[in-house]
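Schema walkthrough. Field components (list of strings):
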Amino acid sequence: MNQITKIHENQNKIMHNAGKYHCVLHTVPIKLLVMTNLTIFFLTLGCLQLAMGGTANGQQITIDARNTDIETVLAMVEKQSGYTFFYKKKDLQRARSVNIRIKNAPIEDVLNKLFTADRGITYHIQDKVVMLKAVPPLSRHTTLPPAQVMRQDIEVRGLVTDSTGQPLTGVSVTVKDKSTVGTATDNNGRYILTVPNGSTVVFSMMGFEPQEFQIDRQQVINVVLVESASALDDVVVTAFGGRVKRTDMIGSITSVTPKDLKVPSSNLTTALAGRVAGMIAYQRSGEPGQDNADFFIRGVTSFGYKVDPLILIDNIEVTATELARIQVDDIANFSIMKDATATALYGARGANGVILITTKQGAEGPAKINFRVENSISMPTTNIRLADPVTYMELHNEAVRTRDPLGDQPYPQEKIDRTREGVDPYYYPATDWRDALFKRYTMNQRYNLNISGGGNVARYYVAGAMTNDHGVLKVDQRNNFNNNIRLTSYNLRSNVNVNVTKSTEMIIRMNGNFDDYTGPIAGGRQMYNMVMQANPVKFPPYYPTPPEQSYLKHIQFGNHAEGPYRNPYAEMVKGYRDYSRSYVLAQLELKQDFSFLTEGLAFRALMNTNRTSYFDVSRSYNPFYYGSHSYNRRTGEFETEILNENEGTEYLDYEEGPKEVSSVFYLESALSYNRTFREKHGLSGMLVYIMQQRLSANAGSLQLSLPYRNMGLSGRTTYAFDNRYFAEFNFGYNGSERFDASHRFGFFPSAGLAWSISNEKFFEPVKSVVSNLRLRGTYGLVGNDAIGRPEDRFFYLSNVNMEATGAVFGRDNEYSRTGVMVTRYANPHITWENAKKTNLALEVGLFNKLQLQADYFTEHRYNILMARDFIPSTMGLTASVRANVGEASARGIDLSADYSDHFGNGSWIQGRANFTYATSAYKVFEEPEYNEWWASRLGYSINQEWGYIAERLFVDDYEVANSPRQNFGEYMAGDIKYRDVNRDGQISELDMVPIGYPTVPEVVYGFGMSAGIKNFDFSVFFQGLARESFRIGVAETSPFIDNDGDAAFLSNNALLQAYADNHWSESNRNLYALWPRLSPTRVENNIQRSTWFQRDGSFLRLKQAEVGYTLPAVWAERLWMKSLRVYANGTNLLSWSKFKLWDVEMASNGLGYPVQRVFNLGLFIQL
Amino acid sequence: MKLNKMIYPLALTIVLTACDKYLNVVPDNVATIDNAFSMRNTAEKYLFTCYRYLPSHASLTSNPAHTAGDEYWFYTPFIGFDAPGWQIARSNQGVVEPILNYWDGQSQPFQGIRDCNILMENIGRVPDMDEVEKKRWIAEAKFLKAYYHFWLLRMYGPIPLIRENLPISAGVEEVKVTREPIDDGFAYIVQLLDEAAADLPPSIEDEQNELGRITRTIALSTKALVLSTAASPLFNGNTEYVGYANTDGQLLFNSEYSVEKWRVAAEACHEAINLCHEMGLSLHRFSEGIGQFQLSPETVTQMSIREAVTERWNPEIIWGNTNSTAVAIQREATPPLDPANVSNQNTKGNLAPPIKIAEQFYSIHGVPINEDKTYDYAGRYNLREATADDKYRLQEGYTTAGLHFDREPRFYASLAFDGALWYGQGRRDDNDPWTVRSRLGQPQSKVSSNRYSITGYWPKKLVNYQNTIGTGNTYTIRYYPFPVMRLADLYLLYAECLNEYSGPGEDTYAFLDKVRERAGLPPVLEAWKQYARDPEKPTSQNGLRNIIQQERLNELAFEGHRFWDLRRWKRAHIELNQPITGWDIDQEAPENYYRVRTLFNQSFLMRDYFWPISESSLIRNRKLVQSPGW
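Field assembly_structure (string):
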């Protein structure tokens, strides 16, 4: 009792003395204070007992915290030591978050670490009570004992920022070898310190490379701290909000620094390629709204429909579009989970890897305002070169003549001559359709604003963004609507954290994401395709309206009496399509700390609902088409006549598109436990339960309209010994409604081990060179229920279409009934697809500057659903019979290297590289028993193509007649000759062999560096991929043929310049010409999948380069800003590839909307 | 602390809802195959499903009989409609993706067979149907099953016979069915037809709702066709396929000729004809006098021939396919007749019969033009001007080829050409019909690059005279269920069988002459005696065979029979190895226009008698042997 009284006395005294002090234990009620006091009492008793036992050791404290609220740390210290802290809350604001890692140390050491003067706080211990006191900020104050003050003291001041110019708070500024002298940067990243002249000042902060400066009468020292390579991803976010130190990791998780994903694009997915070890990504189109990159984690191993990773934003499953729209500025963490243990908690959903993003949350403090504005110029990286109109006509004539001497020549010589002379651009048109339709470049804008801050009860992070992307389509001024592509995307996010009680935190997240689009009726890709399908000499885009017809309210679009042909210009300007896409999310999360029950126990529950809606409206008129005739050669006059008087309209009509609405409900609860026993034994556990339901309003059929549900229980337990040995066990127990009740649930365990060799005693001698050496390995089972096709909802039920085609009878065909058609045969045995995944990894750190990490992974998938191929058509089945019979394997490596260094003059350099190789192979594939070994899929990649070996072009018709028969329709000299691989005298499917590399690249890599000198920073990033093949679309590029797929219109494909320059002709029998013998129609023989049109898809490109300038702090201050950075960057600036016809990254999609090259100017302001 | 207390039960509730019920999202009433036979109404849907697989007889795209032979030709590059069959005619058939692949392609009779079996197995369960109706439906399913087998057999020769369905869970070896000998195939088809005929109604009573469904008349007529096919040279005593066997050595063709087959076929024809007569079927005659116009007898004869095909449910129709009505084919057969509206997009006129089809029709005396001693066969390409005598056949005063003069009414009824007349299509007065003029610059010439006849002929026969060509793109087409079988077909089959079995005889001539008489031709003996160079020809079996075959080709031209008949008679490798010719349509002057231009040299190999089975099907089922020669 005596003790207690004394403390109370002390307390009173303190409060009396300080006046402004109050007793703060977090935000503590008196009751707790009493409890604490009681604790202290018992602990003291304990101490006494221990003392009697003769072990008089002081309380040993172990803390490991990063970016943790200082009050939390203090609470930990209190708990472990039994000491009580007294402080003014305000005083701690300057050092709100701390990084500390200490083991078995006495309290003094801990306090020294926490509160040396560099934090602006001093402490005083008296009778197990710690008094904290602020050193006045921005003052000349030091806590130097007077005797140590030197006469030549000088004052140093300045600003500390990170490499992007953001001020850093809480950076410790100390004098080397005099740990007592020091301060910390304030909220604005500023510091003032009085130091002895000639001493060395050290700037340090957790996660950054420390920097030293020799003080030599310098008054202002501005410092740019560079993130240290070793600590780059110091803490990794794991499944369900878990966090693990990189040094404790067992599974394979890659964290990406969000700012590395900052590209001048409104689409985040375009930034993924080459930035993340373990991710295969590429972009096939540059059309706003359609430019999502394809991405896979560690390649593709299944042949079901779901091969892309699970994407989670704040624990909620989203589509690639939501990922595309998220603002990099809002991202707090971006992790990629790759192996079985990392994804285990997601059970069945994580079979193809997981992308996990958490958004930023507010931190206590005054409002922090960030504002970013960017304006960019966007243009195609490459434009396909087309032949000129005269060549076009000559070769079209040649195409007809060379195939059929009886055939009609499409263009009389007179037309060719006149076109060449260019006498009349309307009667003898020579239309450059691309020029008629597309601008050379377009401008895009992006704005982003976020505000964060809060008090001790609630904290907020609110962000808004708007992006404005335009297409490169031209607009006809005679229309009063805009048919160009314009995609405006709005994003609003609000994350609010509320401390409901001392141990209960509530987080409310709201996110809305809205796309408003207008664009041409057919879409941008289709406009590019139409240019490729348009005849340049049949008609002009439009005829000028003669004065006498000025009453006409419509444009006289060009066309031809033979037609109707498709006029791309008319198709483009005839109307516009609007779509609106909305995604709204509301989420409530509760976190309850159960430490009062047992230490380290916590519970978390999350409830979420989100809604997606989409609708689409088109408005257009029917173009009036005009043809020309009665040309007067002498005067050059001609008449136009209207071709579709009855069909054309001058007014807009309207058509409703699809309206899609879907809702998702998601519930997640998790119980976690995390504790270190006897200093060396770290134990943690987590149990998670999830339920998810998705509903679509217009699913299309009864079975698809039923709710999609998923539920699972999963758990994780980890054990770490002495920071050297680590073990982990996980399981997922998942249910899927797609399977029969008897095997609806699957159990998927996984386990892993890791060894930090560099933490071993024997490693000490080399630790200065090899700063880190670690081995990791995991093995586990993962399940996947997203098998077959999405429309296969319930494999155990048959799917019968009672409204299929039936028959009709009666005298006047008036009695009809629909038919019955089985579209799926019931199979109750169908169940989970499984994967056994192994991951082995080696981590090496050198000189604390270079970090290397290598992962080797293998995967074996089995029970892959596939059609039973042995069932012949004579069975008469209307749907394929399927079973879990397929097996596939995959293996590969992910490598990453990070380097960072800085130099005394404030300049710094960083380098980063990563490399991913992933390949797959069929192990068990249901296929016929081939006698030809090359026909079997076994052992080949899932994305491997089979095709014919094109030997060369046929020399002459004699050779055609005397070569193995090719079974693809008519062919003659100059057409492609294929190899009869099985020598059976004819070319058939059995002569197809695996050709080229897979269609999905097996290697994706990226490397880049950034550097800063004074206020400038530079960066470049290169990205490439390899081991990919694609095929030039033969039908799409076949000149002159009608390939628009619309029977209502005629069309003639354009002629690529490359084909015009290099094709087989009777006068130039080049057996290896790029293009075979010309033809006015599709030549099936040449369209076959073969090596002739296969190309290597590998490339290396300068993906991004950036120059930035951060305004000197003094100037920024004058502008009432904390910082201001101006930057210019560009993407897709240069590329190297063997393929020249179009941007090779687009692969076989090359005739679509081109990938864009972007030049961007940006401004980032922090208030 | 209060909140904490709330959280425990909340957490517990959440975890405890983890029961299987959450995943039971499927309500009880999801449609499964059981629903199909729960009541008559749905069972009827299943019956109609069995009908769904009937080939589209009228389709230019999927029926090989139209475009895969030599009855039509097209301009190149042809962009009028999807005509894969034409690629067969151009010798581009192959094993990788067989054209018009009825084995494992788009349209699969095997699926139809499976559905027929399912109906037969399950119809008994339907509670609200009487036995008579059930029997009738089973009989219809049996007929369809037989017809699907027959369709496949005609294409592929020996085929696997799907007597019963294999279960879905059937093993790898069980599903590997083999071809069965051709005779077994015919026998099984005939057995099914016999069984079906027993329970089918002889004719349709509820014509408003049921015309087009299978009757006993159809079953027996089809049986006659099946047996005649079985007796024909391709399948009867064909020595081309000696040694053609399954992998286990089972021979698939019987190379021994059996005249008995003809007897059985003749009997079947006789039985069918009797039933047809009993049901009131007769050769169609055009009813004279349309409104105020009195038509010439010549026009009436031509119209009888046209209307036997295009008039819905005329008394001659045994089987009209209501699920394949002639619409597109009429559009393709009609040239832009209205000179004021040649740009009408719906008068496509792309179907172009070659000159050999035009030459195949008889002279006005009812004998082949090369046998008619009064006919200037050698000078048939010479120009000649039409006179008043040709008034109802040709345009008076118009110059055209000699080939177009003095031909039988079927020639004028079946074909349109430069100088021809075209009754109907709004022109109801046969003194003022549409004219066809197709030399360069004329209305029916190549005005548009994608709507013209490359030979200068059009199959007028297929166009219902009541169709009207309107302004703009309007073309109102009176559809008709495509005649799969009509009485004239059966008569000629009967004549053929009788002649093959017992040589020329009274009945043979009688049935042949019935058809000739309706076509406005004298009896066969009389015609040959009077006009033919070899007047005795109809009195020998060989001679009469020739005559019956040509009669059949002329009578049934453009109706999808020539293709199969030439194969059945084993004449395809002769007929389909002739060049395809047409007039030089790009010429303005008649002397230039009437020059024969070779459009294509067709080539028909022995293997072309049967379709190839796709290579992938063979790899899947190694017990299945490829068709001979492929």
